[in-house]
């Protein structure tokens, strides 16, 4: 879950420096001390394991015992592996569809929940509820619903398409994963949109309605442009999170039927339990590079925006 | 690296779930490993995670503690085993299913040689090929089998009697039995396609093992290295096509909602007499009895040819004992191993867990269902399930799920060949 505290990039460093006679700003050492604990923890728990993992991706290691360096063998095997390719295609497609669905629903909900309606606060609490439930629990509950309740409902109302479990349909199982993931992810996007919409000054709307703008016109011409920064952030962060899809898929389809819904993260983790350690480390390295590219895009897009 | 480390094992199978949850427990295990015993008894860690018998082994450990005071055993049922090896603090002794999962520990020499122990000499000679085809390390006895499971078609004797049916001994008889049952409005076969492992160990393994000699096939396949395809002597596409097609002929005799039913549903439905046959191993017998203790269950090997003499049962080495090279307390671990291998202890375990004995001096199986398979076992008319011999990095279980759903077998088997080639290329 991303609940990044808003930090202002840019000019802050000026306050932390004092000019010296050499003309070069001297940074107060205390600021480095503040950084130190995070830096040490980050190095120990992220950077070092990442370097070890990348090193192992050039070997035939199974995670323990003897191993040999095998050069680019794992990477060569990786690029010719249709299973890897299809896991990337599935994951990227899934992330795109989900991020669009989540943002569309969350934005419309946010518009509704910031309008003058009854029980606004209570409704907000209800819509945020899915966020606090663990993904695997949600997945098992929905697994039961899709396997038993939905087919029974389909039978009762005579919709033949629903009589067979969606989870067992190789062409449609991904839809269930999109639905459940979206159900869980909408609240966090919703919160950001609510904050965004509430930050728009009321005067703008007043002026617009005096000029005779309809409510639809106000939504398109005022609300949407003024929360555009939030939309970008929700899209990029959401997409990056959905690329890591794991727990909900495990609980719903476990990658099936067949291999129709195997995500990249599942494939990588299978290397840990399945003895394909070095090979999946190579896969993880590629995946890491993709994440880096996305992070750079995110920084580029959000730089200079008024939000974050 | 991705920001979240998943806490759950990728395979949420019967056993996988417990193990996955146990990742959290691994930290605790580590902490207590660090405590080294000064004087007094040596504490060893015993890894055993088969969920049905965790309590049983706790009782055995108590017995062991009462019989001597030199060695204390701590039972670890929840750690992530791969994690303990990666962290270089494996358990001192393990007792685990011997299959694709354990094979890499054997092949990388992570398990110590037990060949000098008298217990190694008591193992049935017929089991050696099964051990070797799974994994070997030169000049080492890496594991000592403890329990063997023989799996076949479970059938409801009462339903068979009501329709005057006898156990089929050929493929045609099997189809005739299914047709008779279907015509009488009885579901011939209960299938649980929602859980891929049930297809892999049942429909797929029974079909393949009834036609192909899996030991010969996999030994040859390993010798071929990366040369697995249309031009090689053996390949999945060549040898497995016919049995897989037969499997797909059998699938339509399943109940209508097989795609959305899992292992638990299957046990309950079979216990309630909703179907005549059920492709599950002896581990399901106890689960079925929980819902309906009076159900009269029989077992027969799935006949795949028109010669009754071709019938074989599927076996797997359900438990095997091993001691990692990295254990610093091998002597204490060996003492516990010898205790577990005492004839009365191992016989009592196998009677309890519905396993077949693996030693030359073992007591014969006595379970009312499994006695029907005894003759096959005694004649060594058995095979290792093909799904147990394909490394986990190939998603075979998922492929069998596609096959059960009616996927064209040739492309699936070609994919399997290609996966095997790629695995051979990089290892």
TrEMBL record, chain A:
Asked if the Swiss-Prot or TrEMBL record annotates the protein with the keyword Transmembrane, the reply is yes
- According to the entry, every stretch annotated as the ABC transmembrane type-1 domain falls at 88-298
Question: Where is it localised?
Answer: Cell membrane
What does the entry give for GO biological process? transmembrane transport
Q: Which residues cross the membrane?
A: 31-54, 88-113, 125-146, 172-198, 219-237, 277-297
Superkingdom of origin organism = Bacteria
What SUPFAM superfamilies has UniProt attached to this entry? Answer: MetI-like
The question of whether Transcription regulation is a record keyword is answered with no
Instruction: Write out the entry's keywords from A to Z.
Output: Cell membrane, Membrane, Transmembrane, Transmembrane helix, Transport
Q: Which PROSITE patterns match?
A: ABC_TM1 (PS50928)
Membrane topology label: Multi-pass membrane protein
| Broad class of the protein's primary localization | membrane
One GO term of the cellular component aspect?
plasma membrane
What Gene3D superfamilies would the database entry show? MetI-like
Which residue ranges are recorded for the region named Disordered? Answer: 1-21
Q: Which family does it belong to?
A: Belongs to the binding-protein-dependent transport system permease family.
Protein name listed in UniProt: Sugar ABC transporter permease
State the species of origin: Cellulomonas humilata
UniProtKB/TrEMBL annotation, chain B:
Instruction: Write down the InterPro entries for this protein, in alphabetical order.
Output: Bact_solute-bd_prot1 (IPR050490), SBP (IPR006059), TAT_signal (IPR006311), TAT_signal_bac_arc (IPR019546)
The record's Pfam families line, in alphabetical order, gives:
SBP_bac_1
Q: Which PROSITE patterns match?
A: TAT
Q: What is this protein called?
A: Extracellular solute-binding protein
Q: Which organism is it from?
A: Cellulomonas humilata
């Amino acid at each position: 879950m991303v609940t990044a505290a808003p930090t202002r990039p840019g000019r802050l460093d000026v306050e932390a420096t004092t000019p010296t006679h050499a003309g070069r700003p001297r940074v107060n050492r205390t600021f480095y001390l503040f950084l130190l604990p995070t830096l040490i923890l980050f190095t120990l728990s992220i950077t070092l394991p990442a370097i070890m993992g990348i090193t192992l991706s050039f070997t035939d290691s199974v995670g323990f015992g003897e191993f040999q360096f095998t050069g680019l063998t794992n990477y060569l095997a990786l690029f010719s592996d249709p299973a890897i390719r299809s896991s990337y295609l599935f994951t990227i497609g899934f992330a795109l569809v989900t991020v669009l669905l989540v943002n569309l629903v969350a934005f419309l909900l946010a518009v509704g929940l910031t309008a003058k309606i009854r029980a606004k606060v209570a409704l907000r609490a209800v819509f945020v509820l899915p966020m606090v439930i663990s993904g695997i629990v949600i997945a098992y509950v929905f697994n039961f619903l899709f396997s038993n309740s939905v087919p029974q409902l389909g039978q009762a109302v005579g919709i033949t398409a629903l009589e067979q479990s969606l989870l067992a349909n190789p062409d449609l199982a991904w839809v269930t994963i999109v639905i459940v993931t979206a159900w869980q992810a909408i609240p966090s996007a919703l919160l950001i949109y609510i904050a965004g919409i509430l930050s728009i000054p009321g005067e703008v709307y007043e002026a617009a309605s005096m000029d005779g703008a309809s409510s639809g016109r106000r939504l398109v011409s005022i609300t949407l442009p003024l929360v555009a920064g939030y939309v970008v952030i929700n899209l990029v962060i959401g997409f990056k999170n959905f690329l890591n899809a794991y727990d909900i898929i495990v609980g719903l389809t476990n990658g099936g039927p067949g291999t129709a819904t195997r995500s990249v993260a599942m494939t990588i983790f299978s290397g840990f339990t399945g003895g394909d350690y070095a090979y999946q480390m190579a896969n993880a390295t590629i995946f890491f590079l993709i994440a880096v590219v996305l992070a750079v895009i995110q920084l580029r897009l959000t730089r200079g925006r008024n939000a974050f | 690296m991705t920001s979240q480390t998943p806490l759950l094992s990728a395979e949420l199978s019967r056993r996988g779930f417990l193990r996955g949850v146990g990742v959290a427990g691994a930290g605790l295990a580590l902490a207590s490993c660090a405590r080294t015993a000064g004087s007094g008894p040596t504490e060893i860690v015993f890894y055993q995670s088969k969920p049905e018998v965790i309590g049983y082994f706790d009782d055995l450990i108590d017995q062991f503690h009462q019989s001597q005071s030199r060695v204390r055993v701590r039972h670890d049922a929840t750690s992530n085993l791969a994690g303990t090896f990666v962290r270089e603090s494996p358990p001192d002794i393990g007792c685990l299913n011997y299959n694709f999962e354990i094979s890499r520990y054997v092949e990388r020499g992570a398990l110590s040689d037990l060949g000098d122990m008298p217990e190694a000499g008591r193992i049935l000679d017929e089991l050696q090929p099964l051990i070797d085809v799974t994994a070997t390390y030169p000049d080492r006895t890496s594991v000592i089998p403890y329990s063997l499971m023989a799996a076949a078609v479970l059938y409801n004797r009462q339903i068979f009697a009501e329709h005057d049916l006898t156990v089929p001994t050929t493929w045609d008889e099997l189809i005739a039995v299914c047709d008779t049952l279907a015509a009488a409005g009885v579901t011939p076969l209960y299938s649980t396609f929602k859980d891929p492992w049930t297809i892999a160990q049942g429909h797929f393994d029974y079909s393949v093992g009834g036609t192909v000699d899996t030991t010969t096939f996999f030994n040859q396949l390993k010798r071929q290295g990366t040369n697995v395809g249309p031009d090689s002597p053996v390949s999945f596409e060549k040898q497995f096509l016919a049995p897989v097609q037969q499997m797909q002929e059998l699938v339509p005799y399943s109940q209508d909602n097989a795609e959305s039913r899992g292992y638990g549903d299957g046990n309950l439905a079979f216990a309630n007499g909703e179907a005549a046959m059920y492709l599950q191993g002896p581990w399901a017998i106890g689960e079925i009895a929980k819902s309906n203790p009076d159900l009269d269950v029989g077992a027969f090997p799935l006949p795949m040819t028109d010669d009754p003499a071709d019938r074989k049962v599927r076996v797997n080495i359900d438990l095997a004992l091993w001691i990692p090279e990295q254990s610093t307390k091998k002597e204490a671990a060996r003492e516990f191993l010898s205790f577990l291998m005492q004839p009365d202890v191992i016989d009592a375990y196998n009677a309890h867990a519905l396993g077949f004995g693996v030693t030359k001096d073992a007591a014969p199986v006595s379970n009312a269902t499994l006695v029907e398979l005894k003759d096959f076992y005694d004649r060594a008319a058995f095979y290792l399930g093909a799904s147990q011999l394909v490394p986990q990095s190939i998603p075979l279980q998922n492929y069998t799920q596609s096959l059960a759903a009616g996927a064209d077998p040739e492309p699936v088997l070609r994919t399997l060949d290609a996966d095997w080639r790629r695995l051979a290329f990089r290892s």
